[in-house]
Design goal:
about 240 residues; Rossmann fold; Arc Repressor Mutant, subunit A; 2 domains; 5-stranded parallel β-sheet; 4-stranded antiparallel β-sheet; 8 helices; about 35% helix; about 20% strand; disordered C terminus
């Protein structure tokens, strides 16, 4: 995962800080604890995302966010408020309240870091069109159901990483129920039919026995795409 995030939070926010979660997922984090430090950071660099956690700030985080929003700064903003805080409506600002779950936090961050129109994911010879829910391999299109597209998107955004069945069920189906993972296995089977040269001998979507699955780009596919390597999806 890539992306530079400026996290504005209070010095006493250690126990609830979002930084460890975001760093674990590969984001580069810069921190500012005061309004002056945040403004100085924005003058010297342009982060991909600004996260303002108002819960322990010593200055008015809402006013700071409103000022940035009004100036037309083209930086996506994620605003985290206390649970009982009234929800403001600032243009281009996404709001979370309370202590967000890891899944909710990452979902919001990923969406904010995906620019409008950036609906194509590439990995080796595969192209996933998220708007049309189509995966293209060697010029051949395969239409996907919404759940299949979401599952393939999750794999492609986590290239090279072993994903457990529990993670996939939570991320794609929004459930912790693991007594029956047949649904996941069936969807993986359908995806292999669409993306693999030979679904019985998968090269992209590998089963990790007793754990889950790993999506990877076969070396031969990388070699064939060498001239266009700048557009490949990078793993975390």
């Amino acid at each position: 995962m890539e992306g530079h995030i400026l996290l504005v939070e209070g010095e006493r926010a250690a126990k609830i800080s979002c930084a460890p979660i975001l760093e674990e997922w590969g984001f580069r984090i810069s921190r500012a604890h005061t309004r002056r430090a945040a403004c100085a950071a924005l003058e010297t660099t342009t982060p991909d995302l600004l996260v303002i956690d108002t819960r322990y700030l010593r200055f008015n985080g809402l006013r700071f966010c409103e000022t940035l929003s009004a100036t037309g700064e083209h930086i996506p903003i994620l605003l985290i408020l206390p649970e009982d805080q009234k929800r403001p409506h600032y243009p281009g600002v996404v709001v979370l309240r309370g202590t967000p779950t890891t899944r909710k936090l990452l979902n919001r961050v990923k969406r904010l870091l995906s620019p409008p129109g950036n609906h194509l994911l590439r990995a080796g010879e595969l192209v996933l069109d998220l708007q049309r829910r189509v995966v293209i391999r060697k010029g051949e299109e395969h239409r996907l159901t919404p759940r299949q597209a979401r599952l393939l998107e999750t794999f492609m955004r986590n290239t090279g990483r072993v994903l457990t069945r529990a993670f996939l069920m939570k991320e794609v189906w929004g459930t912790d129920y693991l007594d029956d993972t047949r649904t996941l296995e069936v969807h993986v089977h359908w995806l292999r039919k669409a993306i693999e040269e030979d679904s019985k001998h998968p090269q992209y979507l590998i089963t990790m026995r007793k754990i889950g699955y790993c999506f990877r780009v076969p070396p031969s596919s990388v070699a064939r795409r060498q001239p266009d390597s700048s557009q490949e999806v990078k793993d975390r």
